Each structure stands twice: as C-alpha cells, then as structure tokens.
Amino acid sequence: MSKIVRCPKCGSEVPEDNLRCFFCGSMLDISVGPLSFIANKKGGLVISIIAIITILFLLKWFF
Ligand SMILES: [Zn+2]
Hints:
Blueprint: E1 4-6, E2 13-15, H1 36-40, H2 44-62
Antiparallel strand pairs: 1-2
This protein binds zinc ion (ZN).
C-alpha cells in the first residue's frame, strides 16, 4: 500500500515508507515520509513533543 515518491536529491522513485533513498542515501522529505502525519497534521508536532516529555517523565517516575 506504499506510494512512490521521488527522492528530492537524485530524483529516483522510492517507496514513501523508506526514510532514505536507496540510490543516493539521502533522507527523504519528512512531508512525504512515514512521519508525514506529524508534518501534515496541524499542531501534530506540539502533540508529539508533549507525548515524548510525558513518556520521559513517566520513565523517570517509575525507575
Ligand atoms: Zn536519491
């Protein structure tokens, strides 16, 4: 079910599931990668940061 995206660096077609282009090894644009839901969703980045902080806080609390 993965779509094909173009590598922004070399222009090769790679599945959007890949974080890196397997032709040139460059990182694919986050807006077309598997983390695109963070970039596309409004406020998603803030929610992600809050979630990470919460997880770190819980880890510190329990251990
Ligand atoms: Zn490439």
